[in-house]
Amino acid sequence: MPTTAAQLSGKSAALEQQVRTGRVGLKRWLGPDYRLGFLFVLPIVVLVLALVAYPFGYAVYLSMTRKYVGLPPVFVGFENYVKLTFDGFFQRAVVNSFVFTFGSVGIKLLLGMGMALVLTSQIRFRSFWTGVLLIPWVAPTVVSALNFLWIYDGSLGVLNYLLVKVFRILPQGVGWLSEAGTAMASVIAVNVWRGFPFFGISFLAGMKGIPGELYEAAAVDGATVVQRFRHVTMPGIRNIVIIVMLLSTIWTFNDFAIVYILTKGGPGGTTMVLPVFTYEMAFGAQRLGEAIAAALYMLPPLAFVIIVLARHMRRGRAK
Amino acid sequence: MVRGGGRPSQAATDRLQSAVSYAVLLTLLLIVIFPFYWMTITSFKGEDQMRSLVSMFWPSPVVDENYRQLLGKTDFVAWFKNSIIVAFTSTFLATAIGTIGAYALARLRFLGRAFMASAVLITYLVPPSILFIPLYAQIRNLGLADSLTGLIVAYPSFTVPFVTWLLMGYFESIPEELEESAMIDGATRFGAFYRIVLPLAAPGLLAAALYAFTQAWNEFLYALVFITDVKLRTLPVGLSSFITGDVYGWGYLMAGAVLTTLPVIAAYIYLQKYMVEGLTAGSVKG
């Protein structure tokens, strides 16, 4: 059957039409910018899968095995979790972690709020003060921990020198990190020192966003300083306070470097927090399965905090 | 309220308020600065002075033996190089991947965008203390344990989500009309991104890169776990290995601490404005 030119062109036009609608369909389905979008997001997808999702899945699996370094894992179900639940050392690490976290976050909240309020009051050289106060946050954590290890030193440390020789508050030096009574407070102090500037700067950013007219209106209505703080400042920075506290809760609960360098969990386990416990279990005792179970034990509350926090952070952005 | 007498004048209240402010600021300043001051003067003190507790707050005499010992007799120089390599490479990777990813997640419309945006944020929030053991297992399976490459591969797991999240905020704050009008004038989507959006987001890029660098420079847990060869340590792990409980160690340990802090603090002092803005944009934007 002879094919006419008209038929041919009609066919190709139809084909073209088909291709075009196909692409339109694809665009409707995958979104108008799907090609550049997929290309640009691809590295992140690979990264999240390879460096977070896969290790995480693997961790869940390993936590249900008996695994020693260099040997294949043996599946044991929830045995590791059950064992940990009744392990006195683990229970203690959980309690210590909560004391460490809530102690630190609470003090950081107070200090950070103070810092932000002072920085919003009428002062000169505001950006200088802001800049200097943020230094602990950018300095390497390990350096800060080592500095405090030296400051706390029982015999030659400057803290004892100040308290005993200069201010004469104490009759004799204290082994800040080696005595059970002071070790936890001492490591909390270092975490607070490093973390409170982040609270302060974030609160400051929030306070700057509150319209000045609100304060003027409150002043006209005769509100006191305290009332202005309660009814204008606090509602204005509520979301930021929640975000910063939750962020810091996650970071503090999982802080490894400070405790590891200052005490390694000692003396006698009084500062043993979960990340250090996990590390020692994995690389000291070489019991990987139990170590990962210890790391994942707190996952349900952690996941809850992360989800609530992510929601708040996205809402903060949407504004 | 007593009329005329009891109420302090506005000026007096202001003066009291600013006095309190400055007192609080000075106290905080002392607390923040003292450890760095102490680190620096310790690094210039000699052994004898440190042991005898004389002239606590100033080195006398000022000596450079700690620095000479640190640079000459320890592996500090090698560690410094390692830290430079790892921090620069992972900063470059994180900024490149994070920039295009953040642009796509902030601007482009495609299937799965909202899901990926959430995934990035959640990844940013998952702490390393949960991931370090399986990640170590994986790095070892890839034959990258005990190598700087292993760290360079692992560090994007925390730098990329942070950079992406931070830059998404920046891109969202740039008016979309600028790109639209460029595209009406014939620019492609990529052209609009490259010529219009990227230059406008430069401060954000700088802040993101600086934070990625700081995070990589300061990282401790992965470097401690992944590296066993002494020569391949990064600065934080190398420094912490100086802890011996021995008084003679503190001088060169503090000298090392000074040299480890300097690059970060220098960058911070020079580019403080961007970092302060970036910090508040990265976690919180209200």
Explain the overall architecture.
The complex is a heterodimer of chains A (319) and B (286). Chain A has helices at 5-30, 34-62, 79-85, 88-120, 126-133, 135-138, 141-152, 158-166, 180-208, 212-220, 225-253, 257-262, 274-284, 288-296, 299-318; strands spanning 65-66, 74-75. Chain A has 319 residues and is mainly alpha-helical. Chain A folds into two domains: 5-75, no CATH class; 79-318, MetI-like (MetI-like fold, Orthogonal Bundle), CATH 1.10.3720. A two-stranded antiparallel sheet of chain A has the order 1-2. In chain A, a hairpin with a 7-residue loop joins strand 1 and strand 2 (74-75). The longest helix of chain A is centred in the N-terminal third of the chain and has 33 residues, at 88-120. The termini of chain A are far apart. Chain B has a single domain, classed as MetI-like fold, CATH 1.10.3720.10. Chains A and B meet through helix 2, helix 4, helix 5, helix 6 and helix 7 of A and helix 1, helix 4, helix 5, helix 6 and helix 8 of B.
CATH fold name of the largest domain in chain A? MetI-like fold
Mean pLDDT of chain B, to the nearest integer, reads 88
Biggest interface, chains and residues, is: A-B, 105 and 101 residues
How much of the sequence lies in strands of chain B comes to under 5%
User: If you compute it from the alpha carbons, what radius of gyration of chain A comes out, rounded to the nearest whole angstrom?
Assistant: 29 Å
- SSE sequence of chain B, one letter per element: HHHHHHHHHHHHHHH
CATH topology name of chain B, in short, is MetI-like fold
Top CATH class of the largest domain in chain A: Mainly Alpha
User: How much strand content do the residues of chain A show?
Assistant: under 5%
Helix content of chain B: over 70%
The figure for the number of domains of chain A is 2
Look at the structure and give the CATH class of chain B. Mainly Alpha
Let me know the number of strands of chain B: 0
Shape of chain A: flat
End-to-end span of chain B in angstroms?
40 Å
Largest sheet of chain B: none
Compute the number of structural domains of chain B: 1
- The helix/strand series of chain A, from N terminus to C terminus, equals HHEEHHHHHHHHHHHHH
Spell out the CATH superfamily of chain B: MetI-like
